[in-house]
Amino acid sequence: MTNRPILMLRTVGLLILLASGVCRPLFAQSTRETIDVVLPRVVKIFGAGGVANLEAYGSGFLISSDGHLVTVWSHVLDADVVTVVLDDGRRFEAELLGAEPTLELAVLKIDAEGLPHFDLSQATEAGPGSRVLAFSNVFQVAVGDEPVSVLHGVIAATEPLSARSGRYDVSYDGPVYVVDAVTNNSGAAGGVLTTRDGLLLGMIGRQLNDSESNTRLNYSIPIMELTSTIRQIQTGDFSRNRDDLSSEVANNFDAIDFGIVLVPDVVERTPAYIDVVLDDSQAESEGLLPDDLIVFANNRLVHSCQAFEAELGQLQPADDLTVVVRRDGALVTVTLTAPRTLPQR
Amino acid sequence: MRRFTRQCLFLLLTMPFAAALADERLEGLEEQAFREAAVAAAPAIVRIQTVGGLDVINGLLTPSGPTTGVVVGEDGWIITSSFNFASQPASILVTLPNGQRYPADIVASDSSRRLTLLKIDADGLEAIKPADAGSVQVGQWTIALGRTSDQPFPNVAVGIVSAVGRIYGRAVQTDANISPKNYGGPLVNIRGEAIGILVPLNPENSDETAGVEWYDSGIGFAVPMAAINNVLPRLQSGEDLSPGLMGISFAELGVTAGQPVLKRVRPGSPAYEAGLREGDIIARIDDVETPRVPHVRQELGTKYAGDAISVSYLREESVTTVDLTLTSKLEAYVAPQLGILPDRASQADDGAPGVIVRFVLPDTPADEAGLERRDRITAIDGVPVANAKELREVISHDRPSDQIELTVVRGASEESVIVTLTEMTADVPEQLPSHAVSESNTPRDEAIRTGRWVDVLGGDESRAYWAYVPDAYHPEQAQGLVVWLHPAGDTMESDVLKLWQPICDRRGLILVGPKTSDQKGWTPSELDFVTDLVEEIREQYTIDPQRIVVHGYADAGALTAYAAFQQRDVFRGVSIAGAPLRVRPPEVKPEHPLQLHFTIGADDPAFKSTEESVEILRTAMFPTSLLTIPEHGHEYATIDAIEAIARWIDALDRI
Fold first, then answer.
1. What pTM was estimated for this model as a whole?
2. Which of B20, B50, B101 sits opposite A33 (nearest CB)?
3. Distance, CA of B264 to CA of B267 (rounded, Å)
4. How many Cβ pairs closer than 8 A exist between chain A and B?
5. Listed range (A8-22, B92-106, B176-190, B330-344) with the worst mean pLDDT
6. Contact B389/B377 with Cβ under 8 angstroms?
7. CA–CA separation, A109 and A45 (whole Å)
8. CATH superfamily assigned to domain B248-325
């Protein structure tokens, strides 16, 4: 018997050892090892709530060794004392350093040192089909000196969470990761979404319903969207820009401003059929006809008269309005221009 | 040797790392495969949007959001879930992966597998590649794909095949997250080949929106591609496909039902025309043994109307095999009417068998044949009947216009009476003596609550209700039960109690009024509360199952009808005041007779739609009565109208 096969095995073993342990010392590689690394970095938060289906608990994650942590901006923080419990059961009172409601973001601080934590500079991005892990104290299952719960899934989609569309009851207006697992339940908000090798992807959001499909939306806000604000709050440089908080629905233009009269809006979802095209109007010169069914306006689906009026309300003077109508079984595209001045009403 | 041990030790020490690497590599490869599968299928996945349509179907708010379709023919054929069109949209738009938009037309639907075929005017599309039908195995990876946002990549959910041949052989089951986000999209294997098309389904329910309630539960379904490809040419030719019906029902129902013994064979149905009759036992379908009822359902589950099958049945120890062609629509069952109200005592005072006539309804076959109060019916067509239940059961198998021979004992004489049955009506007699509440010999248990009282169901504060039980109540005498559903924002408790109390006392009715905690009124999810309450009252009191009625006013009318249509085995009557029918009526079931009664003011804005509802219900063969209150608006019913409702309730045990 020669030594060669054993030598070869030994070399392979060494290579494996290097590949698995040495190359990425901070983040383990298999899902099981990732979980071991991530769990101590996720905390349980207890505060206000407990009435009218509002839970008095939530989740958060550590971002510095001396006790900075990130969570969702919610009613849970609206308490005299907000308590943070680590995975090993240690308990701290938290101080609210700052919050940015339009990002659903709050940063807390506990008085501790040497804590395991996420490195925000190592946060990453991922696309549909990527395997992910969600860590949170969902339904307050972790009650004692124990870590939070882990769920697995894949990223179903990355898409904008448009507050403007009225589809979601939320102030955040940016991209989100949608996950195919039921990650967003009571208490999960403020938890983390990571890749399977433990890199930070997002913060789990609140419970939201998608008003278009009547389903729960399981989403996380990408860390990349939060990093600079977190840093500012952490360093004390943060001041909120309050001007952009107005959520008033604009009502700049009506169909009539383009020479279009829609059919009477009698039911909730009256299709946006053109009833009359006014003489000498822009609609007439661009060739719109009575009985045309408006189906898209500026690339947004028009599923009703109301949706069309809402779209026009958003236009600024002199904006282009590209309308797609269905006429005799074909689609016709027409571009109109909003008047240069707002109409007097 | 020592050297070898050392080598082994080294290997042992490195093994965990090797395992970790294997895990990591496998996870990474799988992740890559998920993405590649999605990319492979993506060109055939289109986005579907609809314009206009209904807001509410079966009590659920219909989604207005985009859904998904799959290209199955490069010249513009797109298959999708029929769920997308439950709201009957005015227009359908398809967006291809490259962003190009097309108007789409519905070509045909498969209502058995709940699929719809669309056509757009396009060429050179990339059709989905189907997976090898025999390759699908429980436990294999599945990737569910949808295209509901305008992102270039389809949305992805990953799971495994949980089962095959589900929903009576119609579907593959998966634990991937299936929801309106991917209904109509493909369920693909790891190579991106379509296993099936995602649809909401529920084995217990065949409504248009059934199965949606499971969207977050780890239970989802896809119709196998092989089944779709089998029927694609028929759909492309514009033929709508429906489940194939035989026209039979079984003595035993449910998943544990045993031998398939026929309880009913619908006259005029394929089974009837082929010679099957009550009492026959189905032994084989298409040469497959069917020892139990579920076997029969499994065999018929994948069959369409128009499909020919062979059925072998056992009658008097000999097996006969017949061929028949399944149909899409059975003639509605029409309940026959004799026209009597039976005495409610369990048997005659002298203990003799038979059915004592309590009342003869005017202008009915019984009236015309000269039957009288206190007559005792002892046999029908020479077969003795012991009690009202038996008589009702036997007659329910006859058809209106059938002639039957009753043996009637009147005083000391016995005679034979020939009666021609008519269609069951819900006509309310002008006069109907109340069924006198007789004194009982045994005193009533003191603990039984009577009069008006309030409580919460199961200690749950959100399930508050009030009740009125006549003071004369005695457990030996079954009472009718009226469940009152109040309109939004007003329990009307004192008004309703004042109007109904004397009537309840006179006619032996218990009145219960559940209260919704929602200011906006009842929601379909509160059906559980209503049925649990009925169950609770039935446990506490002796209730006549023939006289359980749900009565609602104005916007509560929707839940009123919904409750009765969903709980067929509980409710015998629906009474709606000041509102039309807002729920589509189900099919008439002989085993669950149901009557409806509408009360509407002549000046009520809902007057016309209520008249239309009654017409719809009568066409569907539900015995339905309409009471118009002259010079009355939308207000709750007058005392005269309530007297009429009470007479109708009192006559619900009519035969």
1. 0.71
2. B20
3. 9
4. 172
5. A8-22
6. no
7. 12
8. PDZ domain (2.30.42.10)
